[in-house]
Amino acid sequence: MIPAHSFAKRGMEMANHAFSMKQQADEPDVHQIPPLAALIFLLTCVAFFVLLAAISYTYGHLITTLCMVESSSSNAYVPIHSVEPAEDAPPAYTEDGVPKPNDAEVNIVRTQPITASLRATILHLTAKAGFWARLRGLSVYFVWNFARSIVVGMLSAASSNPFGMMIAAIIAEILLANLHMTWIHVIISEPSPKKWYQRIPTPFFKTWKKIVPAVAVWAVTSQVVTILPMLVTGTFGPMRHMQDPNYDPGMKEAYATAGQLFFAMFLTIALVVLLQIPATVAMVRVAASMLPEEDETIVPFDRTFGGLTTPEIIGGQGKIGIVEAWRSFNWECRRRLLRTVLKVAVIMMATWILFTTVALIEAHLLFGPAFGEMMKSMHGVANRGS
After folding, report:
1. 377 is in which domain, residue-wise?
2. What residue ranges are annotated as transmembrane (predicted)?
3. What phi and psi, each to the nearest 5 degrees, are found at residue 189?
4. Which is more confident, 109 or 263?
5. How far apart, in whole angstroms, are the C-alpha atoms of residue 195 and residue 193?
């Protein structure tokens, strides 16, 4: 991960280099970028990227993972006198037909799943674990992703081939399977006095062997969803000739390219729905089935998966299989997850549109005529560098 200030420094160097070349050529109307304006613009970009990252983590990772774990419905058992009746609700009756308004007998009140609503999920998390519960598990998430980037970098250092990168990413996920499972355990369970590194499952190799098949399937599908649309789209039409320096596309080719990009987008969506989501659900639920007995889940969760799992103490594996993990996630749960994913996509898209609009308006107000010159200069320097 490259720090934001490195991008800013590189961008300013490119812009200053381009402007100095124009000054040497005695070209008129060279616009200087005010340092304060550049700083304000940079801080705005950093703030929006932090906001996008927080939204992505809370809604795209944390809540969707809880949605994959939560049971389709939960039963809340409360005394009848603690429930505020509606004004037009009839009184409770005994078997003899005699009203009993003060009876403290326990009734069953069926409620919808917590993760059916994004707002309800956030309120539930903050009530259980405080305001920062929306970022719970962030430390182990950073460690896991940092370790993964190091492993991928080491394995793919000798090759820039996309397939080599894909294989390196899959191997990295398999090697770090226990760390991935630790992150899942941290976010689906109630607050624990233990540090995250104290919650890494033990014995290490034994638990790794149990979780690695599900992680391997998830890693492969993730790479297929990322690579396959680009590979397929690049085998036909104008995009097949994009690497040809002598290729001179016209308006017809521009329309065809736009059509190919839409095809790539729909292919990606189809692969996400048909491959990545089922693989992710199976992997998360397999990891959840291995949650230690002393840890309570923060959302309602059936540890037995309808009787499909058997504890190790009585001779079972102590986990659920990949196929059973997906099958136990019924259609009601699947629809709830798809609705959650759609809501998250809309939130991310709206945030990105807001960021783009604010950035463009701010750039024009802060830089004025220098904005266009800066973009042209940076584009020219980038082309010479490549």
Report:
1. 1-31+368-386
2. 36-59, 138-157, 163-190, 211-234, 254-275, 344-367
3. -105, 160
4. 263
5. 7
For residue 58, tell me if it sits in a domain: yes
The answer on 250 and 183 residing in a single domain is yes
Rounded mean pLDDT of 176-191? 96
What average pLDDT does this structure show over 294-307? 85
Residue partners of 95: CB distance under 8 A and separation at least 6: none
pLDDT in tens, 67-88: 999 987 544 443 444 344 445 5
Q: How confident is the model at residue 262 (pLDDT cuts 50, 70, 90)?
A: confident
61: pLDDT strictly greater than 90? yes
| Residues 353, 386 share a domain | no
| Residue 56 lies inside a defined structural domain of this protein | yes
299 and 193 share a domain? yes
- 25 and 124 in a common domain: no
- Whether residue 22 lies inside any domain: the answer is yes
Is the pLDDT at 92 greater than 90, yes or no? no
Kindly state whether residues 132 and 19 are assigned to the same domain: no
Give the mean pLDDT of the chain. Answer: 78
Same domain, 179 and 317: yes
* Stretch 214-233: mean pLDDT: 90
Q: What 3 state SS string does the chain have? A: CCCHHHHHHHHHHHHHHHHHHHHHCCCCCCCCCCHHHHHHHHHHHHHHHHHHHHHHHHHHHHHHHHHHHCCCCEEEEEEHHHCCCCCCCCCCECCCCCECCCCCCEEEEEECCHHHCHHHHHHHHHHHHCHHHHHCCHHHHHHHHHHHHHHHHHHCCCCCCHHHHHHHHHHHHHHCHHHHHHHHHHHHECCCCCCHHHHCCCCHHHHHHHHHHHHHHHHHHHHHHHHHHHHHHCCCCHHHHCCCCCCCCCHHHHHHHHHHHHHHHHHHHHHHHHHHHHHHHHHHHHHHHCCCCCCCECCCCCCCCCCCCCCHHHCCCCCCCHHHHHHCCCHHHHHHHHHHHHHHHHHHHHHHHHHHHHHHHHHHHHHCHHHHHHHHHHHHHHHHHC
Flag whether pLDDT at 4 surpasses 50: no
* Pairwise pLDDT comparison (364 vs 26), residue with the higher score: 364
Asked if residue 116 and residue 11 are part of one domain, the reply reads no
